[in-house]
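User: Second chain of the day. Same drill as before.
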Amino acid sequence: MDDDAVASPAGAACPAGATTVDAAIDRAIARLRDWQGPDGWWCRAATVDPPRAAREVAPYLLLNRALRRHHPERERVLLDHLLAQQAEDGMFGDLGGSVLVYQALKLAGHGIDDAPMVRARAAIRAAGGVAACDLSARRWLATLGEFPWAGVPTVPVELVLLPAWAPLSLPRIATAVRPAVVALMLQSAHRWSAHLSPEQGVQELWTGPPTAVAVAYPDAASPWSWRHVFVAGDRLARGMGYTPLVGLHRRAVARAIEWLLQRQQPDGTWPGDRRVTIDAVLALHAIGFTLDHPVMARALTTLDAQSTNGPRPDAIWQTAHGLRALHAAGVAPTDPAVAVATSAVLAHAITATGDWATAAPHAAPGGWAADRGAAPCIDTTATLVAALAGARAATADTGQVLARATGWATAMQSWNGGYATTDVHQTGSLWAQTALADELSLADPPTPATTGRVLVAMAVGGFDRHLGRAWRAIEFLRHACDPRRAWDGCVVQTALALGGLAAIGEPLEAAPFAGTVEWLRQAQRPAGDWAGGVAASPAVATAAAGGARVRLAGRGRGRGPGADRRQRRCRGATRRAVVVGGATPRRQLAGGPAAGGSVLRDRGHGVPVGRTR
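Assistant: Same format as last time:
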């Protein structure tokens, strides 16, 4: 061993200065153990920003009022939470969320002369008032009788009967939002309203009379767009008093109810956040389900529990990253924390066919959902396959579960070679031109981040980079890459994509990947961390980029005079990132069967990533 190297706890040779890194990793491991629950899950509630809190908490409060349910103590706690998040300008997030919070506060007894109400009212009116609200706020106010249904675009329930090949059929949108869309279809079919008294309404938020022109939903700028066709067609049908065929309408309503009930999860909720379950409960109540019906009772019980304890975190998603971190830090698969988490995760592996089979009928079921639900997630599955690599050979059952998960994740490849978060490539087609696209993310396109994660899972499963699916995934990343901005100019997307390419063994010396590696190095800030980029925090970006740096440094990219210099740059950048964020996986040297040196393995996914001499 060299004089300037010391033995790390993982047994690897590393510079003397790396002891600071080891200490940081040991503290991170200890903190992960503290956060783990006795049942093996990492399930910590995330911090909810004000806009999301307004969009999730206010609808729950309004649902209780609409259903004549009263929980004064629980409502007081939630309203205090909302008031604490009021911004200096008086808003509670965006305009629509602020209107909903204002309505909830007024229903709870807050007077219009209270200081928070005065500030909120002034900000809402300055932003355009109720008439400028988005679709979600309009629908909630219409449900309470405070907005005319004529200003809420219709989602025809008859669309649920369309075959899968039709442009406006349900399979044309992302799996994750289909329950929400069906719930909105039922609400459109039965425009039920729980009328409030004048004293409880929000007439003071209107900046003018609610005329037909004032409440009309915004149309497209161009008259030659599908958006204009849908909006104008909806207005024309209303003006002519169009009534759907009774038989077809009843059949569609029955099919929508059946579809929604079949997808209710054991705890009573529907896949997605609380808003999906709230919309589903409201839709079912509008068509005649009573509050004591088992479907309604289960859903309301869970909603009440979430209002007290906070929204249910994505337990499997968090546990996947917890296991990934422990494996990367060198913790053995037999460690109690890893073993109990592995058992918990394996018990929730999905073996039933779901809605995803419409777009990928050839795929055998497998994988995991993000929140212990019934809809598998490609992102979560690929991350767990990599995290559980060390446990693959533990038992035959474990190997079979991971093999099924790998097979399902790789089979969900989109037509362009990439991988989306939850489904085969769904662009939303004509759905993206409807008013619903203003409220819901109807598309689920492939992303470099998910594609990179699946490439790591392929490497763990023994895929060669020349194999069909792996080759198409690499080509997707190649065509989506801009050497000047990497992938979307986002550190997280770039780091995960490069990590997948490194894991599968794709050479990174040639364009366009060589430029992205240099872009990632230059994107590191002087303090050692990385900026988050698009929709990511600096901590997440640092964790992702630090992991990618280790893989690239370990691979020994290229031969020639500049290879050693590039490796030193990678290792130096990684060491700075660890000191700042503790994000870098610890590596070990494991003897390989091939001659010419030992195989350098990344403890994060357990596959050869380079060779030392």
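Residues 1-18, 534-542, 556-613 have pLDDT under 50 and may be disordered.

User: Great, on to the next one.
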